[in-house]
UniProtKB/TrEMBL annotation, chain B:
Spans traversing the lipid bilayer: none
Protein name per UniProt: Glycine cleavage system H protein
One Pfam family recorded for the sequence: GCV_H
Subunit-structure text: The glycine cleavage system is composed of four proteins: P, T, L and H.
């Protein structure tokens, strides 16, 4: 099993560990709900060193990105980050990723741990011209500090002015000779930062932040809270909402794609758009008690016709009830509509909603 | 992990307290800790007749769902209604306020039920 530089720390601090696509990762320390609420109200530290870091560099790096990914990158400044899906020729997902512009001709691509090798192979196969692809995942650690108090804690460590870093922007800092790339973003919906650092200095950074955050009540949070936090703000997760079976349409990806430009996977999207969407990714809140789970069937309440499947379902600690996302037939995807979720031998009523499930501290 | 000598235990990590023809059932401290934060407990209707080793309900934690087995048959006398609003009582007090069902049984059936003493259960958990 693969280990992050913080693996021993997690074991020493009572974390419950799980196999997360080949990585020995903490699912929880104290408890998912406590860690979740602390992230919403204070701040938490997440070990996300398992994420993949790929670099594209060279005179043709930008041109390759523009063709490889549906989002636009030409107008990005150095120090800016942009989210994008990455699609196969058939318009389904290879992965979703964040692209960091390090300088004119160098980009960092942060990809899902479970997809890293597949992504590397796909990119290598599709790039051309003067461009070099490098995988620095093993040499790189990554720590996320998330929550309304994240900035107050991090500012005790860094020399740069964090208030100057907007959401989806980053900057570098040098602390005790160690280089940090600090990006204001995250997977929790809260204000916060994701910090890249050399693998060998990751434990130093983690312990330093834990120490500096004592006053604000900073504690570590595991993958369990990371999942409920991202679900409450309806962020997709590869392998659940998005995968190599669903088209990148009808799932909130439109604002991350420029259908006017040429990119891999574009034509099936244009064709499907013209023909009309068959399926849509929706968000629902259970009306009564219960917990919807991944793969639960979605049915029409009157006819009991099967109309879709839950992609992520869980208990929302903030709403104190069941929430989820599901791919359902497009004709049923009307906000406010009550649908049925099959949980074991019962059909639970759920209401379709628009927007995020909860409000957060994130600065727009 | 806490065990109590006055209780009997099952391999599915339930405890029962036997008091004549009445049995109280819940899940053990080991089980609640393994499940993590419990957010919903689905219990049977009062008056339901159940068979031994039948599933009598479900426990939902944030991450997983787990069935509640009853090692002995009988009639459901009452269920813990406090768990509707405070399912986390199962985490905080699994042997007390977190109890789940009370059952009327025939004490003769206890001989057939697969039950462990607290010492046997401790050994069982250590091997788990």
């Amino acid at each position: 099993m693969k280990k992050t530089p913080l693996n021993q720390w997690h074991h020493n601090h009572g974390a419950r560990m799980v196999d997360f696509s080949g990585w020995d990762m903490p699912i929880q320390y104290e408890g998912i709900i406590a860690e979740h609420m602390r992230t919403r109200q204070g701040a938490s530290l997440f070990d996300v060193s398992h994420m993949g870091e790929l670099y594209l560099e060279g005179k043709d790096a930008l041109a390759n990105l523009e063709r490889l990914l549906p989002n636009r990158f030409g107008d990005m400044k150095t120090g800016q980050v942009r989210y994008s899906p990455m699609l196969y020729e058939n318009g389904t997902f290879v992965d979703d990723l964040s692209v960091y512009r390090l300088c004119d001709d160098k980009f960092l691509l942060c990809v899902n741990a479970s997809n890293k090798d597949k992504d590397h192979a796909w990119i290598a196969q599709n790039i051309k011209g003067e461009v070099v692809l490098t995988d620095k995942s093993d040499a790189t650690g990554q720590i996320a500090i998330q929550g309304p108090k994240a900035e107050a804690i991090l500012k005790k460590l860094v020399k740069i002015d964090l208030t100057k870093i907007g959401y989806w922007f980053f900057d570098w800092d040098l602390i005790d000779g160690k280089e940090l790339l600090i990006a204001r973003m995250g997977y929790t919906g809260e204000d916060g930062f994701e910090i890249f650092i050399d693998q060998e200095h990751t434990l130093w950074l983690w312990e330093k932040l834990m120490e500096l955050g004592q006053e604000e009540g900073l504690q570590p949070a595991g993958l369990g809270a990371r999942d409920t936090l991202r679900l409450e703000v309806a962020f997709p997760l590869y392998g659940q909402e998005i995968d190599d079976k669903h088209l990148a349409l009808g799932c909130g990806m439109s604002r991350f794609m420029d259908l006017e430009k040429e990119f891999i996977g574009r034509s099936p999207l244009l064709a499907a758009q013209k023909a009309g969407l068959k399926e849509q990714l929706v968000k629902f809140v259970l009306v009564g008690k219960g917990v919807p789970r991944n793969h639960c069937k979605v049915v029409d309440l009157n006819s009991r016709e099967l109309i879709g499947e839950v992609t992520s379902g869980s208990h929302s600690p903030v709403l104190s009830g069941g929430i989820g996302m599901a791919w359902i037939k497009a004709e049923h995807a009307q906000p406010g509509k009550i649908i049925g979720i099959e949980v074991r031998d019962r059909v639970l009523e759920a209401k379709l909603i628009q927007g995020s499930f909860v409000k957060t501290s994130k600065k727009a | 992990m806490e065990v109590r000598p006055e209780l009997k235990y099952t391999e599915e990590h339930e405890w029962i307290l036997i008091s004549g023809t009445e049995v109280t059932l819940g899940i053990t401290d080991f089980a609640q800790n393994k499940l993590g934060d419990i957010v919903f407990v689905e219990l049977p209707e009062e008056g339901t007749i159940i068979d031994a080793d039948e599933t009598v309900g479900n426990i939902e934690s944030v991450k997983a769902v787990s069935e509640i087995f009853c090692p002995i048959g009988g009639e459901i006398l009452s269920v813990n209604k406090d768990l509707e609003e405070e399912p986390d009582l199962v985490n905080s007090a699994p042997y007390d306020e977190g109890w789940m069902i009370k059952l009327k049984i025939d004490p003769a059936d206890l001989e057939l039920a697969k039950l462990m003493t607290h010492k046997e259960y401790q050994t069982f958990c250590a091997e788990d």
